[in-house]
């Protein structure tokens, strides 16, 4: 017990796991990949997985850390978000309560997973009686918006995202609505840096599918390029004002982009994190 256990969700964008799994493999004690046994998304759509992906997974897993967990994660009586929560809870139960449960999506790439796990281990006391001491650990997203000819547009201000918990009482996505501890870990999120067809697939099949006006979003997304991006603002697909502005960095691959990003400028300051964490501690002091 008290291990670093990582869970991934395997669906229509499973090929991105070739980017995300290697970044966490060394520091993870085990990795569990959830795959719907009927190859259905949370919205009930179907996807396919080529046998070559499983061959890659087998050849990559030299330490035999990876398990594929197949189950029926889709319920036609639930909406997409409810099915997402269902799958995340089932996956977490399979991973094993009493450990640090880290759930990562295919398009999420940790910049320094070792540092993230070190932060978790400093807080192992929360694993002693997790149900009574529920906690969430959040890092910060660098959201990628759109590839250009020579680089990529990304959201200028990172936003927090919950990645780990000691007790998976998820309410929406990975959010348990319990106390959050914010740490200065960055995760590159290949959120919208896809083709228009891939964005439509994502928005149609993920947990927020019922909340997004796809055509309205794409009409704006198409117009933005490397030359005019500074003229646009309010770019988030749910609450537009949450993504105020874009920045640009050169790079034609995730590796190059990751190398060229200025992480010192993107990381939240120590004083900001102290303030956020004090606020969370005080909010949950008498709950």
What is the element layout, followed by pairings?
Layout: E1 4-10, H1 17-24, E2 30-36, H2 51-60, E3 66-71, H3 80-95, E4 100-104, E5 108-110, H4 113-121, E6 135-147, E7 151-155, E8 159-165, E9 179-189, H5 196-205, H6 214-223, E10 246-250, H7 254-260, H8 263-266, H9 270-283
Parallel strand pairs: 1-2, 1-4, 2-3, 6-9
Antiparallel strand pairs: 4-8, 5-9, 6-7, 6-8, 7-10
Please tell me about this protein's structure.
This is Glycosyltransferase family 2 protein. It comes from Gillisia hiemivivida. This protein is α/β, with parallel strands linked by helices and 287 residues long. The protein has a single domain, classed as Spore Coat Polysaccharide Biosynthesis Protein SpsA, Chain A. 31% of the residues lie in helices and 24% in strands. It contains 9 helices and 10 strands. The protein has helices spanning 17-24, 51-60, 80-95, 113-121, 196-205, 214-223, 254-260, 263-266, 270-283; strands spanning 4-10, 30-36, 66-71, 100-104, 108-110, 135-147, 151-155, 159-165, 179-189, 246-250. Strands 1, 2, 3, 4, 5, 6, 7, 8, 9 and 10 form a 10-stranded mixed beta sheet that branches. It is globular and about 55 Å long. The protein starts with a strand and ends with a helix. The relative contact order is 0.15. The model has no long low-confidence stretch (mean pLDDT 94).
